Amino acid sequence: MTGFLAGEGPRWFHIPAHRPFADDVARGLLDALDGQGPEALADALILTPNRRGARAMAEAFLRVAPGRAILAPQVRPLGDLEAGEPPFEPADLALDLPAGITPLRRRFELARLVAELEHLIPGGVAGAAQALEMADALGGFLDSLQIEEIEVGDKLAGLVDEAHADHWRAARRFLETALARWTQRLADLGLMDVAARRALLLRRLADLWEAQPPPRLVIAAGSTGSAPATRALLAAVARAPLGAVILPGLDTELDEAAWAVIDPQHPQSALKRLIAEAGLSTRHVPIWPASSGADAAGTARVRLINEALRPADATADWLSVIGTLRTPGHDGVAAGLSGLTRVRAAHEDEAATVVALLLREALETPDLTAALVTPDAALARRVAARLTRWGVIPENSVGMPLGLTRAGALASLMARAAADPLDPVALLALIKHPFARLGPARPLEASRGLLPAALRGPRARDWSALRDKADRISPEALALVARLEAIVGPLAETGDAPAARARALCVALEQLCDGGPGDPWLGAEGEALSRLLGALIRDGEVLPRTDAATFAELLNRLMAAETVRAPEATHPRLRILGALEARLVRADRVILAGLEEGVWPQAAPQDPFLSRPMRAALGLPSPEQRIGLSAHDFAQAACASEVILVDTERRGGSPAVKSRWLWRLETQAAGAGNSH
User: What is the C-alpha separation between 275 and 281, in angstroms, rounded?
Assistant: First the structure.
């Protein structure tokens, strides 16, 4: 072996933030295996953080080897590894493990558990919808324990003393009971939590590769090692004779004093923990060979971003840092700001218009690629809608909540009609929905006549009164009301079990659409709706009993958590990505939007069960750790050659506070005498 595999010992490398990460990994691997035959590359295994990163890595090999016939390596996502896929397949690591519980069934089971333990919750639980909300919080707590591989044992018993408020003592009692019952429930079902299963699989793979190093080339690329099991696997890969780990955006220029005071909110916090556990320092992590070479503009941008985001305790010497950025004949601050633009919109709608125009304008330059990176799903949807109106459909990994699709909206309307069958707004919305087919043809004329005469004014007290109103309009209107009564009326007679209500809802939807071209089960949105309602029918018996209004609220909550990504043909040069998904993706023009406090970075989540001292006593990471991971993603994306930073003056009608990262960049630029 030659190239990066020539040396001995653990192999850790990094790729600077301004470099195209996936392309450099692919180029370096091709250079190292040059002359060893196509089977050498095909036998290699590359581990990426997620599925989007795996796709980006596979596409990179096509870009860096134009005109060459290659057998691409296997690319697998660390975050979604399952039994039956390499590298687990040959090792049989999961033969004795139960299957993972599906996300929807887990939510239902936890909601049932919360309802059973409502006597331990101050104020109780008001229905299935609130039980589901508490179940999500309980699920987040369980996930944290499993990802961090924390055995609670009897730690909860001594977690709260007399100094704590009563509600924390109640939360401790609830968690103790819920943990015991959930463990027993999973055993009864013969299942296990997905997070626990993934952590155990990664641990087993790490142990196997420590004892029996893989006989083929293994590259772990792009991970920051935020979970203990992931860090263990990365260390095993680095120590393997044919292994290497490539870190994204490691700051090797930060001085030792600043490195020592990095806190959980810093972009380098996860990488610092990773290399510290491996017994390394930044000087032991060389640059990936394919990423070396002179790039003054890119280096200046990286230095500018890293220094702007340096630890808060190390910002006292910012003026001296600015001095080091300026050398005779070279202004590093100006060079770093070159290609970096800031746009401040008045509100979210204006921001969406600006971003859409910037993306569309990029298509006027041949071969120029552009990407919007934002954690703001609502903004991403607005931008995608504007581009679609212009006949441009970008690749959109953010997707759309099921409740906002046509099929989801129809299901929500039908559930609302079940709660209030004579609600004139709901009935009219059902009639005018594009999927509705209440006869040989869609009854537009009848619905227009029904609206002013039958639905306006005092509400009908029952279906008979509504039929009388419609009969005075026309026979068509009367037939329409009779048809609606036949569809909506039986929903009120359904039992209180959510599974029974979901089954009746499916029947009503099929009757309303009557096999027309707007079938609610067609397409990506139809598949998502059928999967959700199917899970409710199959597993919803464990949910608390609900009335029709509570079921409608429950359905809306469930649909809000389901994301639909339409598999339609998209433009090859435009992407809309979430912050994590953009880590391994690079475009010529990168737009970072949603740069307001509470959006990017998101505020630390509120934990209804544990205070900060209680989390620390259990060994759970602080809520700010998520901010550090988000800061790393921002720093990576902000080092592209052309970057446009977008924030808004107002959000939701209220004044918005620009992101702390924007504040720091502006402060540093102003201190250097630059305005941008």
Answer: 6
What is the 3 state secondary structure string of 581-626?
CCCCCCCCEEEEECCECEECCECCCCCCCCCHHHHHHHCCCCCCHH
Give the E-state strand segments of 127-214 in sequence order.
191-192
Q: How far apart are CA 278 and CA 247, in angstroms?
A: 13
Structure tokens belonging to residue 328: 């005779």
76-108 confidence digits (pLDDT tens): 988 766 555 666 554 567 668 888 999 999 999
Q: In degrees, to the nearest 5, what angle opens at C-alpha 212 toward C-alphas 210 and 218?
A: 75
182 or 586: whose pLDDT is higher? 182
pLDDT at 609: 86
d(CA 638, CA 73): 29
DSSP assignment string, 649-665? SEETTEE--B-HHHHHH
Cα–Cα distance measured from residue 373 to residue 575, given in angstroms and rounded to the nearest whole number: 8
Is there a contact between 319 and 276 (Cβ–Cβ < 8 Å)? no
Q: Is 1 helix (H, G, I), strand (E, B) or coil?
A: coil
Strand partners, 593: 646
Does 251 score more than 70 pLDDT? yes
- pLDDT category at 158 given cuts 50, 70, 90 is confident
**262 Cβ contact list (under 8 Å, min separation 6):** 268, 269, 272, 311
Gyration radius of the chain's alpha carbons:
28
Task: For residue 538, count other CB atoms closer than 10 A to its CB.
Answer: 14
Q: What are 332's two structure tokens?
A: 């590093």
Which tokens belong to 435? Answer: 């999927």
- Counting Cα atoms < 13 Å in the Cβ hemisphere of 80 gives 10
Could you tell me which residues are beta bridge partners of residue 220? 47, 245
Question: Residue 513 is which amino acid?
Answer: C
Gap between the Cα atoms of 595 and 634, Å rounded: 10
Residue 140 has pLDDT above 80, yes or no: yes
On whether the CB atoms of residues 369 and 573 are closer than 8 A, the answer is yes
- Spell out where 334-463 has E strands: 340-345, 370-373, 394-396, 400-401
**CA-based nearest residue to 637, from 582, 575, 676, 576:** 582
Go through the chain and tell me how many residues it has.
Answer: 676
- pLDDT tens for 561-579 read 999 987 667 888 999 998 8
pLDDT value of position 525:
92
In the block, tokens 């201190």 appear at: 671
**Those residues with Cβ within 8 angstroms of residue 75's Cβ, 6 or more apart along the chain or in another chain:** 45, 46, 48, 54, 57, 58
The first and second tokens of residue 513, run together, are: 């659409």
How far the first Cα of the chain sits from its last, in Å, is: 48
